[in-house]
Amino acid sequence: CVSVTAIAIAAGAGGAVVSAPIVLGAVGFTSVGIAAGSYAASMMSAAAVANGGGVAAGSAVAVLQSAGMAGLSGAATAAVGSVGGAVGFLATLI
């Protein structure tokens, strides 16, 4: 049914956008920086070792740290919502 599909897409998109900041904080990408001893700290350490001592600008760790500190940009919100909507649609096919 079209209405069930539309609801699933909207729920997936909305859920993804709402949960993204919560998930970022839970893994250690917080509004005040990367939390010590967290999964994010492990990612940052590995990225720094692989990159000769620093985290490269534009790397996954840098982007996630930025999102954790400042929130998702408009483009990131659109991307997360799109992926969530796609997951919601795929869930209707199961």
From TrEMBL:
Keyword Transmembrane helix: yes
Organism expressing this protein natively: Maylandia zebra (zebra mbuna)
Main location (coarse class): membrane
A GO biological-process term: intrinsic apoptotic signaling pathway
Places the protein is found: Membrane
Membrane topology term: Multi-pass membrane protein
PANTHER family: INTERFERON ALPHA INDUCIBLE PROTEIN 46-RELATED, INTERFERON ALPHA-INDUCIBLE PROTEIN 27
Phylogenetic classification of the source organism: Eukaryota, Metazoa, Chordata, Craniata, Vertebrata
The name this protein goes by in its record: Interferon alpha-inducible protein 27-like protein 2A
